[in-house]
Amino acid sequence: MTERALQGLGVSAGIRTGKAFVYAPVRLTDVEKKKTQDVDTEVERLREAKSACQAELQVLIEKAQRTLGEEKAVILKGQISFLQDPTFYPPMEKLIVSEQWTAESAIHQVVTQVASLFESMKNEYMRERAADVRDVGNRMFAQLCERKGTQLSDIGEPVILVADDLTPSDTVQLDKNLVLGFVTRIGGKTSHTAILANSLGIAAILGLGDGIDQIRHGDELLIDGSTGNCILSPSAPTKESYHALMQRDEAEKAELLAYVDRDAVTKDGFRVELAANIGTVEESASLISQGAEAVGLYRTEFLFMGQSQMPDEETQYKAYRQVAEAMKGRPVVIRTLDIGGDKELPYLDLPKEMNPFLGYRAIRLCLDRKELLITQLRAILRAGVHGDVKIMFPMISGMEEWRQAKEIYDQTREQLSQEGIPYADSVELGIMIEIPSAALLASRFAKEVDFFSIGTNDLVQYTVAVDRMNEKVAYLYDYFHPAVIRLIKTVIDASKAVGKWSGMCGSMAGDPIAAPLLLGLGLHEWSMAASSLSKVKKVITDLNRSDCAALVERILEMDTAAEVREALLAFKP
């Protein structure tokens, strides 16, 4: 068979080759609407299917808790909540009784309606919930069918899994020893499948579209989860080429192991702190072994997402405490709830906005709904007894917001004190610099806050007025833009002037190419994906800070991002 190249969305890195296993379970799309003469029997069949579905999901939840942790298990708990939702299961029984439909037909009708409702929503995260609805419906439907289709349990050798879609409960069942990677027809970066794929460390390509129809059971595949390349029936030269890439990657990984336990110190003695960004409690368990000196950004919104209701103080306290204890006294910067924009919580009933990234989000939301912030601050302060916890407020645009947040923090401390509840008495408070107005006021903020953390992802977006998710203008999104560099310098200089520290938790911190620039600017703390720690540490230890400072002087005279990038690539210390 001739080699064919297919393109999807790479969501979990890794290069894998193997035989395709086409996963084809029975789906609700196979249903034909039928009537019944025996309503009572159909109602009983439906109830039994619901009960069996709940039992099956409970088993998967317990497995997820053991292998992935509580925060991933809530994805499946959310599916059980659908079975208990008055707008989901009761209408199925009603259709059987009033319309005399079969149980299969009733499931199909309701699931289609509810999933379509989610798919019509503007927010991508909410649209992805349609997959959860269909997953529950398919599971109920499978309980009623004799024909089961191709099941995951049929996998008996290492394969690359190919499917129209992989539901969260499918992904939880994957055996990493047998599933080398997977490819799906649909899916996005915010889907549960993508989140779970990264947690499992399985190479994954989503959104292959109609190209997936070219793949047959048993075909040889080569997938590159970092680029989204899927090659069907790869030729010998192609396999050889990718084999060389795999060998290079393995050699690089082996070399980087030597840097895990080393300090990030330049040749001339300038030391920086390398930290990791995390979104879940489970990620903190292995950070120290990967070389992280701290958690520079704990994105707490992931604790709130995928749930049917707001996590209470005790739930939050346990999560924050677990991270603090996992870091064994090393710093943990916890960002307060950063919701809004592209991240929604259905139970908050947030208003629809024309420009959500410029609207009611993050600290703006929390200052308006103070009970959210107070509950979170109480949980963080209590967890601070068990480690070195710091608090960071996101989306600060002016002094008024910072002072309001600080006032609520002070009131929360007093509240805990009056109640006799143990809490961390001395917690550093910082702000995230992601809006140009905050960067320009850095010298004023530096007199009152304990630290800054520069969020380059949004800072670039707001500085150059570019939606980083818009492919039409993505070429303009560049953290080497001279205006962005000047804002970063302003922030770092302001903190140094009063003896305080600045960190960076945006993607720029994890880019080895940017290392000489950030060293030259004097950035104290760099926070990034854990997988980037050793790469960046290696670059830092090979540089002289004095050389980098001289490079920065030249860069500050440049006019374009292209000039800056070229200078960094050409830099030879």
TrEMBL record:
Signal peptide: none annotated. SUPFAM superfamilies: Enzyme I of the PEP:sugar phosphotransferase system HPr-binding (sub)domain, Phosphoenolpyruvate/pyruvate domain, Phosphohistidine domain. It holds the Pfam family PEP-utilisers_N. It catalyses: L-histidyl-[protein] + phosphoenolpyruvate = N(pros)-phospho-L-histidyl-[protein] + pyruvate. Belongs to the PEP-utilizing enzyme family. Residues 157-228 form the PEP-utilising enzyme mobile domain. This is Phosphoenolpyruvate-protein phosphotransferase. Residues 257-543 form the PEP-utilising enzyme C-terminal domain. Its cofactor is Mg(2+). It comes from Paenibacillus germinis. It is found in: Cytoplasm. The lineage of its organism: Bacteria, Bacillati, Bacillota, Bacilli, Bacillales. General (non sugar-specific) component of the phosphoenolpyruvate-dependent sugar phosphotransferase system (sugar PTS). This major carbohydrate active-transport system catalyzes the phosphorylation of incoming sugar substrates concomitantly with their translocation across the cell membrane. Enzyme I transfers the phosphoryl group from phosphoenolpyruvate (PEP) to the phosphoryl carrier protein (HPr). Residues 7-129 form the Phosphotransferase system enzyme I N-terminal domain. GO terms for molecular function: phosphoenolpyruvate-protein phosphotransferase activity. Its EC number is 2.7.3.9. The keyword Ribosomal protein does not apply. Keywords: Cytoplasm, Kinase, Magnesium, Metal-binding, Phosphotransferase system, Sugar transport, Transferase, Transport. The keyword Metal-binding applies. NCBIfam families: PTS_I_fam (TIGR01417). InterPro entries: PEP-util_enz_mobile_dom (IPR008279), PEP-utilizing_PTS_enzyme (IPR050499), PEP_util_C (IPR000121), PEP_util_CS (IPR023151), Phosphohistidine_dom_sf (IPR036637), PTS_EI (IPR024692), PTS_EI-like (IPR006318), PTS_EIN (IPR008731).
